[in-house]
Amino acid sequence: MDGLLLFAHGARDPDWAKPFKEVARRVALSRPELALRLAYLEFMQPELEAAARELVALGCKRVHIVPMFLGTGGHVRRDIPPMLERLRDECGPEVEWLLHAALGEQETVIQAMTASSLAWLNLGASAGPESQA
After folding, report:
1. Stretch 19-44: mean pLDDT
2. Is the peptide bond before 14 cis (omega within 30 degrees of 0)?
3. How many whole angstroms from its chain centre is CA 44?
4. Which end of the chain has less Cβ packing within 10 Å, N or C?
5. Cα(7)–Cα(4) distance, rounded to whole angstroms?
């Protein structure tokens, strides 16, 4: 069974997580059978390793980790690999951990950011792109 672990940075302000929670909600609605967790690097719970263990406890043998970052910076390069190494040691070879590219580097996300940025030019000063939805 596959699992999907959405991984965001985290913040002290709980409102910061609203967009990530919304993505997780939409994924869950689209694929209700999917084992899904949203985890954070810091300040918020659950952390990546705890969420990953939950997916394994559900029976996942392959876990897709999607860094919900705009780019592959230090957190993706330095912080995630040791966490994955600990999980590999703990769970053994029967669980496959797949770390994907940062979300912001995917073409569809780049297109969406481009369209949203350009939408500001077509709106009045008081409106935002989200009002077009």
Report:
1. 98
2. no
3. 13
4. C
5. 10
115: pLDDT strictly greater than 70: yes
The tally of CA atoms less than 13 A away on the side-chain side of residue 95 is 24
Length reported for the chain: 133
| pLDDT class of 125 with cuts at 50, 70, 90 | low
What are 122's two structure tokens? 């077509």
